[in-house]
Structure formats: C-alpha cells, structure tokens
Amino acid sequence: MKILCIGDVCGSSGCDALRKFLPKFKAEHQIDMTIVNGENSYDKNGIVKQTSDHIFDSGADIITTGNHVFRRKDFYDVLDNSDCVIRPANYTKNAHGKGYTICDMGRVRVGVINLLGAIYINAPLNPFSVVDEIIDELKSDGVRVIVVDFHAEATGEKRAMGYYLDGRVSALFGTHTHVQTSDAQILPKGTGYITDVGMTGPRNSVLGMDVDIAITKVKDMLPVPFEFASGKSSVGGIVFEIDEKSGICQNVWSFCENIN
Prior knowledge:
The chain is α/β, with parallel strands linked by helices. The protein is 27% helix and 27% strand. The chain has one domain (2-259): Metallo-dependent phosphatases (Purple Acid Phosphatase, chain A, domain 2), CATH 3.60.21. It has helices at 11-29, 49-58, 76-81, 127-140, 155-165, 211-220; strands spanning 2-6, 8-9, 33-37, 62-64, 100-104, 109-116, 145-151, 171-175, 185-186, 192-194, 199-202, 233-242, 249-259. A hairpin with a 6-residue loop joins strand 12 (233-242) and strand 13.
C-alpha cells in the first residue's frame, strides 16, 4: 500500500495549495491513504474546524497536529469527538483529544501515532516512554501497519526516535521545522523515515511567516504579530510504500512540488 504524508499546512496559502495538489496527486500515484499535519492551517495560528474540514475535503484521511493544537479553544470539541484528528500522545490524559487512532481500510488497519518532541518544545511527557505503550496496544489489537508523525524541533531527537522505532513501526516522518530534509530512507530494520517532511505553504517566506515580520523578530528581538506570508506555495510530502502483511516499508520517496 502507498501512504502519503504531507508536511505542516500553513494558513490560507497552504490550504489552497493542498486543495489544488492533493486530488490529482492521489489519483496519479494510486495513493491508498493520506496523512496531513494541519496544526498551522488557520491564518492566526493553530487549527480550527473550518480548516480541518478543508483539509479533509481536499482528500486527507487523517490530520495530525503538534504544539499549537490547543491554541483555539473552539477546536476542542473536534479533538474530543473525531477519530480522524489526533494530537500528540505525550500530553497528559487530561488533555483534549487522543494521541493515536486506527484507520480501518477494509483489507488492512493502519495505526497512526502523533508525538511531540521533548527538546526545545518541552513536551509534558517523554515521547519515547509513551510510544512504547501505544505500539504494544496497537500490535496486541492486530495492527501491523503503524505510521508516526514526530512533531519535534531537534534533528538529533528525530533521528534517535527513528532508530528507536526501527522495525517496530512501518514509517516515521518528522514535522514542525518546515524545511524538508534530504534523508528519506529505509532504516536497517525496515522502517521508512525522513527527519522533516517540510511544509505546505508560501514559498517566499520564513517557515511560512511573512519575511519582513520574521526578520524583525530575529533582528530586533522584539515581539511581533504572527502573520503568514501570501503568494505562490509549495507542497512538501513523502510517500511510503508498505507491505500490508509484514508492515515493512519497501520503498520511500519525498518531494517538494511548487503550486502556481
């Protein structure tokens, strides 16, 4: 089976780019399942029901998130009631929503886990300890194909998690840093991996943000209003080809496609 994973959708530009890109790409490459990180899809940061609906209507099956998932309180109901929108699993049990889900595709069930990095982001719980428990639960339920979105800042932490889970999950893709890395690969024990899949949003930007605002922030070290850039966008993603019976990744390829 082919599982497509799309990097952080940033604001209106990212939502529009996803809508233009995804249906055609899925048809051309016979994609079986699509996972999209949507935590930055709202123009004022975070995610709201309107943008999650847009992402699903564009062709996503599962939406993963990250450290901005709780920024909009009116989204809590979606987190609590949807089986297709998940937040990082290593928040406490009192947090809204859930950290993993199972997508039943008929011939195969796919487990999707969302994790938050501990380095620089300060996740409430250790992601390495939390993920062990979830994997054991999924496998005891007969789930053979497992995909992880590791939303983390530190490259080393992402690489360490990849090797830690090698052979235990089908694929791991990193999100959060918005710049696609060139290390798409199959790890020694059969797990598909990339450190960061990149973002879906405005090309002429600083990680999606308006260039002038971002420069002011880092140059003058002063608070600035958050504002995404506009203009032509790109879509960053990766395709994992996974054997349904063994859960082993057989092929992996990443892309960054310009839109407009």
